[in-house]
Structure formats: structure tokens, C-alpha cells
User: Fold this.
Amino acid sequence: MTKRLMYPWNPQFVSASRMFDPLTSLAEKLGGFKGSWPSLEACQALLSEHGEPILTQNGTPVKIVAQGPHPVGLEEQYATRIYLTGEIQTRTENWHDFFQLLTWLIFPKTKATINAVHHHAAKARYSDELDNEHRSPIENMLSLFDEGGAIITCSDESLLHMIRGFDWKNLFWWHREMLSSAMNCTIFGHALYEKALTPYIGMTANCVLLPVDTAFFIKTLPEKIKWIDERLAMLLLNDPGYRTPQALSPFPILGMPGWDPLNKHEHYYDNTAYFRPGRTRNRPIDPV
Assistant:
């Protein structure tokens, strides 16, 4: 077991890093869980107190349940069980599963879309009697994003070009001041949030690139999150460009200014083992 997985319960984790900014609306409620991990009942209360019910695309309210035995057959598979019954199997005292819950609270439309597309892709495999031990490319893409995804919202095409071209030092150092006004990185994946508890060189996000106009950056954080959630849900449901893992852009996330205290020094970005050159691919870019 890694050190990251043994990170103790800390209800103030949201204030520890800019990486947790999307979760700040939950900070007050999370601060109430002092001294010990929230129970499954307390996790369910977070859902129940959310306001609007969070629904699967099947129209079923999501709910927290204890993890069951190893699934047998399609209906017991994790994603299909959520789609059909709303039941999110959750382990107690487990950061990974706790962040899974939090991302449903923050990105309800996108999570429901990912779940539905995942379910229908798995159902097609079972119906066609394909190799049920190996997921399809779209299932792999959805899993990569759901676990380790982030969203780059950017109003300057030149910055997006640097990301697609793996031009990391140019992006993070020589255009450092520009990033604060023209580009945001928003973490989505629950596994990536777990890693952010104890960040390490090597942390890489699988990103969707969303061009925006400059007005996006005067929105409040909740407004930005709501816009991202709605836009991303539409893309993952309807855009044929998002069907394989190659649609996602790798992004060395600790390069973001201030996301690692050490990246205030230029030589930080000379670490090509982390800021790796790569082969440019034709990844989809959503129009503004």
C-alpha cells in the first residue's frame, strides 16, 4: 500500500491546494466531519442535502450503498448498477470512493453522462457476445477521464497549441503570466483528487480542451463549474471525437503555477522525465 492511500482523514483538505478549488463549495459541510471519517449514512446525507436530486440518465436518484461482492453478470457491474438502480457502491474510510461521491455532487450532469455511455457500451459488448473481459475503446476513454481527467478552459488558441504540442516550458514558464487570465485547469477525476492529497512529480491528467471566450474568466467559480458540467456532458454524449483514449490530452498538472511550491523556479520545467516531449495527435477541440 502506498503512502498516498494511507493519508489520514482530514476534513480541511480542500484548503490544502489549488487543485481542490472545484470542491470549495463543499468545504463547510466537509469541515463538520471532525475527528473521524464520515459514515455511509453521512455520505448519503451529503447527497440528500444537495438541493436538486442527482439522477442517473435512467431517471433514478443516486444513493450510497456498501460495496457488494464481486459482480456476476452485467446488471451487477459497477456502472450498470448505478445506471439501473442509482446505487453507488462505496467503501468506508476510503479516499478514492469518497472523492467519487464528491465529483457526483460537483459535476452531476457529466457523471450521469459518463455512467450512461459506459453502461450502454458494456451492454453492447454483452449483447454481441464479445470478449467481456476487455472493455471497448470508449469505455477505456471514459474510465481514464472519470479517474484521472481534468478540463482545460482556455481563451487563447496559442496556449492550446502548446498543450497539443507538448511545449511545456513555453506554456508554463514563458507564458506564465498569461495563464492566470486566459487558462484554467479544473480537476474532474476522483483518482486525481486522491493523488492531490500527496502530490508527486509524475502526476498527469487526461484532459479535455475547451476553448472559451474571455467572458468565461469573469464568472464566479460556481458559474464556471456549472458551465463546464453542462458543456462536458454534451460533448461526451454527442461528439464522435470522444470515443478513444487518444482523444484526451496528457497534461503534467503540477506545472500549473502555484500547484507545486517548487515550480516558481525556471529549472523546474527542465525535468523532461516529467515534462515529456510527445507525439502530436489530432485531438478534438470543442468550438467556443
